[in-house]
Amino acid sequence: RELGMKVMLGCMSESSIGISAMAQLISMADYADLDGALLINNDPAEGVKIDNGEVIFSTRNGHGAILK
User: Which of the pair, 49 or 65, is modelled with greater confidence?
Assistant: First the structure.
């Protein structure tokens, strides 16, 4: 930011565990692309959900993700 650059969080095919951890930093980013769990058929966890661009956090402790 000191150099005038933007900050983006993103993933390609991350599970809900990684996305839930990354989502904790979302308020410090200019852009976020955290829909990677939607691109995999066998996501082993559930956690933060993305619904029409809105981040929905779990009420569980920590990053909120748990294994299924």
Answer: 65
